[in-house]
Amino acid sequence: MRMCLAKLIVFLLPRNTFGEFRKYYEVSWTSCSSMSFNPETRRLSVGLDSGTVSEFILSEDYNKMTSAKSYLAHQSRVTMVLFVLEMEWVLSTGQDKSFTWHCSESGRRLGTHRTSACASCLQFDIETRHAFVGDYSGQVTILKLEQDDCSVVTTFKGHSGSITALCWDPVQRTLFSGSSDHCIIMWDIGGRKGTAIELQGHNDKVQSLCYAHHTRQLISCGADGGIVVWNMDVKRQETPDWLDSDSCQKCDQPFFWNFKQMWDSKKIGLRQHHCRKCGKALCGKCSSKRSSIPLMGFEFEVRVCDGCFESITDEDRAPTATFHDSKHYVIHMHYDVTRGWLLTSGNDRIIKLWDMTPVVS
Q: N or C end of the chain: smaller count of CB under 10 Å?
C-alpha cells in the first residue's frame, strides 16, 4: 500500500470505533511502498521507494513506535516485504529485479536471487521454506531457501501480463496468482499434477487476493472495483490448450495465412478463433455462440463452438462465484478471518470496511 508525503500513518482500531486517527510517525524522506506487520511481536516492516526496509516495534498500547533497524535490501523501490517469525527472516522483492532475505536478529543479508524481470509479489511457505516470487514478465518462480543459499525449484508461466498478486494456501498447498491480464490462475502444487485452473471474473487487472481456509473461498479485488468471492470447494476443470491449425477444424476453410489452400480452393482466408471449451481452431462462423462455463473459470460469456454450445447444460452454467461492487479502484485489501471483515483501500483515498459474513460462510 503506497503512502504519500513520506509518512507512515498508523490507524488504531478501538472496539467501537473504526478508523480513528491516533498517531503518525515520520519514516524518512522517501515514500513507503509496502509493509508487513506481525501482531505477535508487534514488529512493523516497511519497504521504501529508496530500496531500504525499515523495521519498527510498536508499544503494547500502539501509541509509540521504536525504530529497530534498517536493511539495505534493494537498489530501487521495495515492492513487497514479509517478516517470517519462525525463521527470523525478512523477505523482500524489489524493482531492481531481485529477491532478498535478511536475518532479523543480526540484520545481515543471507542471500539474493536475481529475477528475470522486476519482482512484484511474494509469498512464503514456512513448512517447506519455499518462496514464491511473481514478476512483471508474468512468471512465478519457486525458490527453496536455506540459511544462506537458495535454489530454483521451478517456474510457472501462464499469464500474459505481469503478476500483480499472490496468495498461498498452506493447507491445500495451492498457489493463486493474479495478473494484469485480468485472470487468476490456481496452481496445484501439493497434488504434484501440474494442474492450472483459470478464473476469469474481472474486467481489469487483479489487484489483491486472499483465501478463507475454513470455507475454501477465494476473495479477489480488481482495478474494475469488483470484489469476487470464488467457491473453490467444487471440482473445477482445466482450460484446454489452444490447438494450432492452418484451416478451420470444423469446416476446413483456410485461415488468412494459408496461402496455398487459399490459392488451391480459390477462397479468401478467414480469421482464426478458438473455442474456450475444447480449444479447437475455428473460423468465426463455426464459433459464433457465447456461453459462460463457470467450472472452467469463465463466469462471463466466452466464445465456444457450436458443438460445445449444445453440450453445455443450464446446470453447467450455474455460477460458482458471487460479484460485488466496491465502488472504488481497489489497490489493496486485507481479510480478517476471525471477524469476517474485509478491508479495502483505493486510489480515491478511501478505506472501506466490509462485513463479508453473508457471502463468506
A: C
Distance separating alpha carbons of residues 277 and 309, to the nearest angstrom: 9
User: Is there a single domain that holds both residue 122 and residue 55?
Assistant: yes
The string over 1-27, giving b where at least 16 C-beta atoms fall within 10 Å of a residue's C-beta and e elsewhere, is: eebeeeebebeeeeeeeeeeeeeebeb
Residue 337 forms part of a structural domain: no
Rounded average pLDDT over 321-326 = 93
Residues 156 and 204 in one domain: yes
Answer yes or no: is 278 within a domain. yes
Is the domain of 96 the same as that of 193?
yes
Query: Of the candidates 180, 178, 198, 229, which has an alpha carbon nearest to the alpha carbon of residue 335?
Result: 229
User: Which residues touch 248 (CB under 8 Å, ≥6 apart)?
Assistant: 254, 255, 270, 281, 282, 283, 286
Question: pTM for the complete prediction?
Answer: 0.83
CA distance 263 to 343: 61
Report the sign of the C-alpha dihedral through residues 202, 116, 168, 142, in that order: positive
CATH number at residue 296: 3.30.40.10
Q: How far apart are alpha carbons 148 and 343 in whole angstroms? A: 36
> Are both 211 and 263 inside the same structural domain?
no
Is residue 253 classed as helix, strand or coil in its secondary structure?
A: coil
Across the chain, mean pLDDT equals 87
- pLDDT-above-90 percentage for the chain: 61
The reported pLDDT for the residue numbered 269 is 66
The answer to the question of residue 350 being in a domain is no
> What 3-state DSSP class applies to 238?
coil
Q: What is the residue range of 291's domain?
A: 259-310
* Judgement on whether residues 272 and 211 belong to the same structural domain of the protein: no
- Poorest-confidence range of 78-82, 90-94, 177-181, 332-336? 332-336
> Cβ contacts of residue 141 below 8 Å, gap of 6+?
113, 115, 116, 132, 133, 134, 135, 152, 154, 155, 156
In the predicted structure, residue 3 carries a pLDDT above the cut 60:
no
- Overall average pLDDT of the 21-36 stretch: 66
